[in-house]
Amino acid sequence: MSKRANPMAVKAALTYDIFEAAKALDKSPATIRNWIKDGLPAMTSSKPYLISGADIRDYLRAKYQASKSPLAPDELRCLSCRAGRRPVDMSVVAYLNTPQTTRLHGVCVRCGGRASRIISNAKRDEFAQTFQIKSNANSDA
Ligand SMILES: [Zn+2]
């Protein structure tokens, strides 16, 4: 496997197209497209797609953190705490992520920050027993 991209290689205040992001992070454009499919937020209403450096940083940190510490079944990953946290009232909003996956967003019970988790649609019923899931047809988070 290739080595991890350094989140600090992008500037939080800038936006990048896929090729600029690939170059900055020493990755292929295909990898960046995969990240977008995997949940990296991108402005896809017009081409070229634009990605904010801040979102790239958040995405990479969450991604690498996730591989270090798996979440408990009742936790989301809080971007501020950088840890698994329960959402306030166990309430989450579901956003369509890819045709196969859903993004759950909630508010971190510890710090009030944004917490999220990407789940397989196949497991959505299972998660619905743990979380109060509200649907949101709009995929913009
Ligand atoms: Zn938190």
Automatic annotation (TrEMBL):
Transmembrane segments: none annotated. Gene3D superfamilies: Winged helix-like DNA-binding domain superfamily/Winged helix DNA-binding domain. InterPro entries: DNA-bd_dom_put_sf, HTH_17, WH-like_DNA-bd_sf. SUPFAM superfamilies: Putative DNA-binding domain. It comes from the Bacteria. Residues 16-63 form the Helix-turn-helix domain. This is Helix-turn-helix protein. It holds the Pfam family HTH_17.
